[in-house]
Amino acid sequence: MKTIGELLHIPYPIIQGGMGNISNPILTAAISEAGGLGTIGVGTRTPEEIDQMILEVKERTSKPFALNIPITVTNYAKEMVELAIAHHVPIVTLSAGNPGKLIPILHKEGITVIVVVASVKHARKAEEAGADLLVAEGFEAAGINSSLELTTFTLIPQIVNAVQIPVIAAGGIGDGRGMAAAITLGASGIQMGTRFIATKEAPMHEAYKQKLLDAADTDTLIFGRTVGRVRRILHTPYADKLMQTEQQGLTLEEYAKLTDEDKHVLAAMEGNLEEGFLNSGQVAGLITTIPSVEELLKSMMEEAALQLQKGTNLLKEHSSLS
C-alpha cells in the first residue's frame, strides 16, 4: 500500500477539510506551502467563483492542493469536475453523495480521488467504486455530519479492517496527540478543519478565532437531529436561537433556511454572531493558541512522534514487568 505522501505528494500526512463557503485561497495555499494538503471547498459557490479561487491558489503556491466537491450540496457537480480537469487540479475530494459516476471521469485525467465516508458500508462501496483514499469522519467533526453519529475512535479501526486502501482520520483531531491516536488506530493520515481556522493565515473574523480560544469541552452543539440532520456548531447567541426553534418544532425546510451557507459566512467572515452560526468540531476545547500554519503542522508532527515513542516505551516497561 502506498503512503499518503506518495499518493498526494505531500511531506506531512495532514489534509484540510472542505470548509464549504468559508474555504478560501489564502488558507488553502498556506496549508499546501507548509507541507500539508490545502483544499478548496466548493460549498454552494458557482463555477465562476471556484474558477477564480483555483487560479488564486495556483498564484500562491506550486504545491499540490485539492478540490472538495460535496455532490448533493452543490448544484454544479459536473461543472466542478470539469474545472478540476481544466485546471489540472491533482486531487479531488468527493463527499455528501454517491461518487461512483465521477471517479472514472477523474481517473481518466490522472486525478487522485479521495472519498469522505462515515460508515463501513460506505467505505466498502467507495473502494469498489475506485476511490484512491478514504477520509473516515466521526461525528465529532464540525458542520454537517452523518446521522449515524459514529465516533472517530470506533470508526477508524473498523474501516481500516474493511478496506485495502489508505484511510485518513477526521473528526476531533487538533494536535499531535490526536494525530498519534489516529495512526495507532490504523489511519495513514489525518484531516482537520476547525484547528486550521485558529491560525494566523486563516482570513476568518477575529470573533470566530476568539470563540475557539474561549471554547470549553462542552461548547459545541448538535442542531437538526429532529429532522434527520446532524450539524455541529459552536455555542453562540444564534446557536441558542436555533436550539430554541428546534425545541418548539422544526421542519426540514426551516432547518435548511436557518443553516443556509450565507448565515455561516455572516458569522465566520463578518463576525455577526447574532444572525449567523459558526461550524465547529469538538476539538474546539483543545484550541488555546493561534500559530502560523507552518508552526502548527511542524509542532503536530513533532508531538505525534513524541507521543508514539512514549506509548512504545510505556508498553515496553509493562512488558518487562510481566
Q: What's the SSE blueprint?
A:
Blueprint (H helix, E strand, L loop, with lengths): L3 H5 L5 E3 L8 H9 L4 E4 L5 H14 L4 E6 L6 H10 L4 E5 L7 H6 L3 E6 L2 H10 L3 E5 L5 E3 L6 H11 L4 E4 L5 H9 L4 E4 L1 H4 L8 H9 L5 E4 L6 E5 L2 H12 L3 H7 L2 H8 L24 H29 L1
Parallel strand pairs: 1-9, 2-3, 3-4, 4-5, 5-6, 6-8, 8-9
Antiparallel strand pairs: 7-11, 10-11
Can you put this structure into words, describing what you see?
- The chain has 322 residues and is an alpha/beta fold.
- It has a domain at 4-203: Alpha-Beta Barrel (TIM Barrel).
- 44% of the residues lie in helices and 15% in strands.
- The chain is built from 14 helices and 11 strands.
- The chain has helices spanning 4-8, 25-33, 47-60, 77-86, 103-108, 120-129, 152-162, 176-184, 194-197, 206-214, 237-248, 252-258, 261-268, 293-321; strands at 14-16, 38-41, 65-70, 91-95, 112-117, 133-137, 143-145, 167-170, 189-192, 220-223, 230-234.
- It has an 8-stranded parallel beta sheet. Strands 7-11-10 form a 3-stranded antiparallel beta sheet, with helices on one face.
- Helix 8 links the parallel strand 8 and strand 9.
- Helix 8 crosses helix 14.
- The longest helix is centred in the C-terminal third of the chain and has 29 residues, at 293-321.
- The model has no long low-confidence stretch (mean pLDDT 95).
Q: State the CATH topology of one domain.
A: TIM Barrel
- The amount of beta strand, in percent, is 15-25%
Instruction: Please mark out the parts with pLDDT under 50 across 5 or more consecutive residues, or reply none.
Output: none
Strand order of the largest sheet: 1-9-8-6-5-4-3-2
Number of strands: 11
Tell me the span between the first and last alpha carbons.
35 Å
**Mean pLDDT, nearest integer?**
95
- The CATH superfamily of one domain is known as Aldolase class I
Instruction: Please report the number of helical segments.
Output: 14
Largest sheet: 8 strands, parallel
- The proportion of residues forming helix, as a percent range, comes to 40-55%
By secondary-structure content and strand pairing, the structural class works out as alpha/beta
Name the helix and strand elements from N-terminus to C-terminus, one letter apiece.
HEHEHEHEHEHEEHEHEHHEEHHHH
User: What is the CATH class of one domain?
Assistant: Alpha Beta
- CATH level-two architecture of one domain: Alpha-Beta Barrel
- Rg is 19 Å
Please tell me what the overall shape is. globular
